[in-house]
């Protein structure tokens, strides 16, 4: 064997050795990297896996754990580590102090919810639609309920029950007895008080002493859910404050009862960038709309429509009926309020679109296409209690390109709201008060009561049949006013109360409040001339009750 | 009460809320085909005053889809036509609660 051959062999050997070692080193390095990654994942999981929630939820969870309004994750971590005491909720100017009723405070450390909360929310948490993640989202959420009537009471009750973290409650009205058949948060004892206070009492707790800090648990009668923070607003929503208030919340519920507030709330939601769950009810029907969802900037066509997109023109002011005028069935408005709470829960607990599945850790460096947000299909749910089917879902349009609030051409701005140049009362119109009839066409209830009851005059009651059957004066004839003068006069002639008006007998017209009766007198003058002696009873049966018969039913 | 099927050559028009109060009816069967843009004229003839009192502020749906009457009118000949058997609904806003 010559020397060169030996050297060559040696070189080849060395090269092979180096290549082999390098390959081994690469393998070792890769193994190390993988081991490091595994160790890191394990460490993260160990830290994050406090009772069953994945690492990607940790930030959100820490926010929910924090009792204070600002979500200071760093401080929370220090508290978890025992470096700082648990935060004491500071009673803010608008917020009701949080009650600690029986250990519902989340224990720092192992579990994100308190023992009582697992028990309280367990029935909804075991469903995949909610889960622990959804419950924490609810706990983190701030929802504003505007209006605490037939819609707001059930909506607020179900949201409080579900564990929404902060519930804003706004209403400037006081409780009346006529509210109690449908406004389930209010009760006989709270009649005359603010609806907001009545609702807080129902939802949270009755606090005997205003000096809350010194009251012991025996001073508190806990109600539906004392874990929720309640923020009362004891006034109606005003345009100058609306956007600033809405900005403090994640979601707004319109539970009001008038077009002016419906347009204002929708506009403020667009400007504050909040989704809106709007519902309404009258008589036996209701409507439910999820608007401005997802909330995007005005002009962004990928967002859902606002109230103005669906109803750009308000109904004429004189055609608007309140629940007091048109009537309302308790469960009808209750159903709509409960549906609002349901939509709110669905919006708040909606899972973010899942990231694309990771098959190999090596793929981390690869570009992945961003997840596609599913298109939101806006709908309006209509409820008609006495129709078949009772429910109808209507597919709505997208945003209007010329919408006054949510298009590029929007004229409704924060400035126009603050300065009052967007005038909701002017936009929705106001009812022109009736020109009162001349005195000779009217009679007071007291004077009418003194007239002889010997058949020398005729009393015409123009309320509808249903009201007439609740209470009526003996000898009166019921001819309901339906807004059509000609039809009413024809009906009256047919029924005989206008025939033979040359007999000198006088006709008296009465209604519930004294408005329709004036219209009827005008109708008679228009169609039968001034030969008919006809007068209306001023103030209708309300005046009758006040001035003549205290026992007359006030409905 | 449920709405009877539209007779041949007609479509069903459903009334809700204030539209029910104004017409005192739950539904009508009207002759089809009818351009959406012409619907309110037909209704105004049947129920004088309904356009100002009810229709101008209402939403309209055809087979559960929201339809903008003004936009359809602006499209002229190309505007949507209500066909035999369609279900059309007049939906005034309910604002009470």
TrEMBL record, chain A:
Signal sequence range: none
Cofactor(s) needed by this chain: Zn(2+)
InterPro entries from the UniProt entry: MOCS3/Uba4, Rhodanese-like_dom, Rhodanese-like_dom_sf, ThiF/MoeB/HesA, ThiF_NAD_FAD-bd, Ubiquitin-activating_enz
Record-annotated Rhodanese domain positions: 458-553
Single GO biological process annotation from the record: protein urmylation
Cofactor binding notes: Binds 1 zinc ion per subunit.
Subcellular location: Cytoplasm, Cytosol
GO molecular function per UniProt: ATP binding; metal ion binding; molybdopterin-synthase adenylyltransferase activity; molybdopterin-synthase sulfurtransferase activity; thiosulfate-cyanide sulfurtransferase activity; URM1 activating enzyme activity
Transmembrane segments: none
Family annotation (CDD domains): ThiF_MoeB_HesA_family
Top class in the EC scheme: transferase
GO cellular component: cytosol
Domain of life of the native organism: Eukaryota
The protein's Enzyme Commission number: 2.7.7.80, 2.8.1.11
Enzyme active site: 323, 511
Keywords: ATP-binding, Coiled coil, Cytoplasm, Metal-binding, Molybdenum cofactor biosynthesis, Multifunctional enzyme, Nucleotide-binding, Nucleotidyltransferase, Transferase, tRNA processing, Ubl conjugation pathway, Zinc
Pathway where this protein functions: tRNA modification; 5-methoxycarbonylmethyl-2-thiouridine-tRNA biosynthesis; Cofactor biosynthesis; molybdopterin biosynthesis
Protein name: Adenylyltransferase and sulfurtransferase uba4
């Amino acid at each position: 064997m010559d020397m060169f051959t030996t050297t060559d062999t040696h070189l080849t050997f060395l090269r092979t050795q180096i290549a082999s070692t390098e390959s081994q080193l690469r393998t070792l390095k890769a193994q190390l990297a993988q081991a490091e990654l595994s160790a890191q994942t394990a460490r993260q999981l160990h830290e994050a896996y406090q009772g069953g929630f994945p690492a990607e939820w940790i930030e959100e969870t820490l926010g929910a754990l924090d009792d204070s309004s600002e979500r200071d994750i760093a401080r929370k971590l220090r508290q978890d580590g025992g470096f700082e005491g648990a935060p004491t909720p500071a009673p803010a100017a608008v917020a009701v102090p949080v009650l600690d009723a029986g250990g519902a405070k989340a224990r720092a450390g192992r579990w994100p919810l308190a023992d009582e909360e697992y028990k309280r929310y367990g029935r909804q948490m075991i469903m995949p639609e909610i889960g622990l993640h959804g419950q924490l989202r609810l706990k983190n959420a701030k929802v504003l309920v505007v209006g605490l009537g037939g819609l707001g009471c059930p909506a607020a009750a179900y949201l409080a029950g579900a564990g929404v973290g902060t519930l804003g409650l706004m209403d400037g009205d006081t409780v009346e007895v006529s509210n109690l058949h449908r406004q389930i948060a209010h009760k006989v004892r709270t009649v005359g008080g603010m609806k907001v206070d009545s609702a807080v009492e129902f939802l949270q707790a009755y606090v005997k002493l205003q000096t809350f800090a010194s009251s012991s648990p025996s001073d508190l009668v806990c109600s539906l859910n004392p874990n929720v923070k309640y923020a009362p607003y004891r006034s109606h929503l005003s345009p100058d404050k609306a956007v600033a208030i809405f900005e403090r919340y994640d979601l707004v519920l319109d539970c009001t009862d008038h077009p002016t507030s419906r347009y204002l709330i929708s506009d403020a939601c667009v400007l504050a960038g909040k989704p809106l769950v709007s519902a309404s009810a009258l008589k036996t029907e209701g409507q439910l709309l999820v608007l401005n969802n997802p909330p995007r900037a005005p002009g962004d066509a990928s967002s859902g429509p606002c109230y103005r997109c669906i109803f750009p023109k308000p109904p004429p002011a004189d055609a608007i009926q309140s629940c007091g005028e048109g009537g309302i069935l308790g469960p009808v408005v209750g159903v709509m309020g409960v549906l609002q709470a349901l939509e709110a829960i669905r919006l708040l607990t909606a899972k973010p679109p899942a990231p694309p599945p990771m098959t190999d850790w090596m793929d981390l460096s690869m570009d992945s296409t961003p997840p596609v947000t599913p298109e939101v299909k806006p709908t309006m749910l209509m409820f008609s209690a006495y129709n078949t089917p009772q429910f109808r879902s209507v597919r709505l349009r997208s945003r209007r390109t010329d919408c006054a609030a949510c298009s590029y051409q929007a004229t409704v701005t924060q400035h126009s709201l603050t300065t009052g140049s967007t005038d909701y009362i002017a936009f929705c119109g106001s009812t022109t008060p009736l020109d009162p009839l001349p005195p000779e066409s009217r009679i007071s209830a007291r004077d009418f009561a003194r007239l002889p009851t010997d058949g020398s005059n005729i009393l015409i009651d123009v309320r509808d049949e249903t009201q007439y059957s609740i209470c009526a004066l003996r000898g009166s004839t019921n001819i309901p006013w339906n807004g059509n003068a000609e039809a009413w006069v024809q009906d009256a002639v047919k029924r005989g109360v206008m025939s033979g008006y040359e007999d000198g007998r006088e006709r008296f017209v009465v209604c519930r409040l004294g408005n329709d009766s004036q219209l009827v007198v005008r109708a008679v003058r228009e169609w039968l001339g001034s030969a008919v002696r006809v007068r209306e009873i001023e103030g209708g049966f309300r005046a009758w009750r006040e001035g003549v018969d205290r026992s007359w039913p006030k409905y | 009460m449920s709405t009877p099927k539209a007779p041949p050559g007609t479509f069903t028009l459903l009334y809700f809320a204030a539209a029910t109060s104004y017409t005192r009816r739950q539904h009508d069967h009207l002759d089809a085909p009818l351009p959406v843009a012409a619907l309110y004229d037909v209704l105004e003839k049947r129920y004088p005053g309904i356009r100002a009192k009810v229709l101008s502020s209402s939403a309209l749906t055809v087979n559960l889809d929201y339809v903008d009457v003004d936009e359809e009118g602006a499209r002229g000949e190309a505007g949507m036509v209500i066909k035999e058997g369609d279900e059309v609904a007049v939906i005034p806003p309910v604002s009470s609660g």
